[in-house]
């Protein structure tokens, strides 16, 4: 036992001596390189040494740069999001940020930090590298500030050689998929409007702001059956990616919301966006000059989004007015280009080849007068679901009373329900009346007075219409008799 202990001590001394010699040699080499070799050759020397050691390693390293030329590298962006939730106990430094109007913190790795991820029982090691460079020798496509201009960023992914196929065919696709899900769940919903000053810049033609609209399906004054139908249709749509691909159709869905002003069309759109966590793109067709602009705007919209064209009947009617103004301006010696956004261009936009430029999109048209729309717009495949936004019903009133007053029943409910259908008022009008008073009793009595006034107006309008119809009928009969007398006189 004594001999064994002595041999172990001797071995330890030998190892320590060897390590010390290697360390001393390394320090000597480093000093010589630093003091006697020009700095521009340092990188080449260390790169050569690294290659020598790499030849004896069974590990493979993939370098994932931030950009592929001037185009964003999808794998880099996915890794940045994915690794934010994969920080290990050995991680000492994190980057954390939160834009002013965003709801979530953004967590990411700090420079040169290392994260180890286990996938299918195999170990994958990540390092985030940031190299400073002279700004004048490097162009970063995201050149918003000097820091970005002077940094070249990349991830290094290291793993065992045997896992190359696993990394390429399974691990990296998994990361891209997970990153998309995380990005969708954590994003703040935005509403985008067209920036007409940058309409020819593909990356800046849409200007976003946060959508803070509080509407949700639980608070919308709508018949329960209709609400349930919309929710089921939305759920079915987002789950049918493979089905749409199988049948050869673009993964999109068209909705037409029609009904009087104040019936909740805009609120329903906001509720759909909040339910699906989709951004909204608000498009005003009357501001566009040509069909090509329409196509560019469609290409620039993101997947998982809702494209809205409000008051489509007014948009179509306005085209003749624009053309007339163009002709009038030309006749006065001024040249003005006629609007060339056509019905065929619009149809191709929602149902033609260009409609397939993107996935998981919802297109919504709204109108106050469905009878004014061209039948070509209304068929399935363009507007798949027609939703009639009706006047407030007893069911809608109860929901509004629950939301605004916090009550589900009251002695005045029966009287309100008896006259609300006859009064033909919108949910917006009912909501406004409920907001006028702080006391529940006063609020409901105020609503009853309002409904009675509206009912009286409707009855008077109906009576007047009947009277006009009767007068027109008498006049028609009188004119018919006079024409008959005149004809007989001419015959005689």
Automatic annotation (TrEMBL):
N-terminal signal peptide: none
SMART domains listed in its UniProt record: AAA
Cofactor: Mg(2+)
Domain of life the protein comes from: Eukaryota
Keywords on record: ATP-binding, Hydrolase, Magnesium, Nucleotide-binding
Catalysed reactions listed for this entry: ATP + H2O = ADP + phosphate + H(+)
Keyword Lyase: no
Domain annotation AAA+ ATPase: ranges: 251-393
Biological process, per Gene Ontology: response to stress
CDD domains per UniProt: RecA-like_BCS1 (cd19510)
Pfam families named among the record's database cross-references: AAA, AAA_assoc, AAA_lid_At3g28540
Gene Ontology MF terms in the entry: ATP binding; ATP hydrolysis activity
Family: Belongs to the AAA ATPase family. BCS1 subfamily.
Name of the molecule in the record: Protein HYPER-SENSITIVITY-RELATED 4
Organism ancestry: Eukaryota, Viridiplantae, Streptophyta, Embryophyta, Tracheophyta
């Amino acid at each position: 036992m004594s001999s064994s202990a002595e041999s172990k001590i001797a071995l330890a001394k030998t190892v320590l001596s060897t390590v010390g010699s290697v360390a001393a040699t390394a320090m000597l080499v480093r000093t010589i390189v630093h003091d006697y070799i020009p700095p521009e050759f340092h990188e080449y020397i260390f790169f050569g040494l690294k290659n020598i050691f790499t030849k004896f390693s069974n590990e493979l390293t993939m370098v994932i740069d931030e950009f592929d030329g001037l185009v964003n590298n999808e794998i880099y962006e996915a890794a940045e999001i994915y690794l934010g939730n994969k920080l290990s106990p050995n991680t000492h430094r994190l980057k954390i940020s939160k834009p002013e109007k965003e709801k979530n913190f953004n967590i990411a790795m700090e420079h040169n930090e290392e994260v180890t991820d286990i996938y299918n029982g195999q170990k994958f090691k990540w390092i985030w590298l940031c190299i400073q460079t002279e700004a004048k020798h490097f162009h970063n496509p995201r050149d918003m500030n000097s820091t970005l201009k002077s940094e070249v960023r990349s991830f290094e992914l290291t793993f065992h050689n045997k896992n190359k196929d696993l990394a390429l065919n399974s691990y990296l696709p998994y990361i891209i998929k997970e990153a998309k899900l995380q990005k969708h769940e954590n994003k703040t919903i935005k509403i985008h409007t067209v920036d007409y000053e940058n309409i020819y810049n593909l990356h800046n033609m849409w200007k976003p702001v946060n959508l803070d609209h509080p509407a949700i399906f639980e608070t919308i004054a709508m018949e329960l059956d209709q609400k349930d139908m919309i929710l089921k249709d939305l759920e079915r749509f987002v789950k049918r990616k493979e089905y749409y691909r199988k049948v050869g159709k673009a993964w999109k869905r068209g909705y037409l919301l029609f009904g009087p002003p104040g019936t909740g069309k805009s609120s329903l759109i906001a509720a759909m966006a909040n339910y699906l966590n989709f951004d909204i793109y608000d498009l005003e067709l009357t501001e566009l000059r040509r069909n090509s602009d329409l196509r560019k705007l469609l290409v620039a919209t993101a997947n998982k989004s809702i494209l809205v064209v409000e008051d489509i009947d007014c948009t179509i009617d306005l085209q003749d007015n624009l053309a007339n103004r163009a002709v009038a301006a030309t006749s006065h010696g001024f040249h003005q280009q006629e609007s060339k956004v056509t019905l065929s261009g619009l149809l191709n936009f929602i149902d033609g080849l260009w409609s397939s430029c993107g996935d998981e999109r919802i297109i919504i048209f709204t109108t106050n007068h469905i009878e004014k729309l061209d039948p070509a717009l209304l068929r399935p495949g363009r507007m798949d679901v027609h939703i009639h936004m009706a006047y407030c019903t007893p069911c809608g009133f109860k929901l509004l009373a629950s939301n605004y007053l916090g009550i589900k029943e009251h002695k005045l409910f029966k009287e309100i329900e008896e006259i609300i259908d006859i009064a033909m008022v919108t949910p917006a009008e009912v909501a406004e009346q409920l907001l006028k008073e702080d006391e529940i009793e006063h609020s409901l009595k105020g609503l009853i007075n309002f409904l009675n006034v509206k009912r009286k107006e409707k009855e008077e309008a109906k009576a007047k219409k009947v009277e006009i119809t009767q007068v027109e009928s008498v006049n028609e009969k009188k004119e018919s008799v006079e024409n008959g007398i005149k004809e007989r006189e001419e015959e005689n």
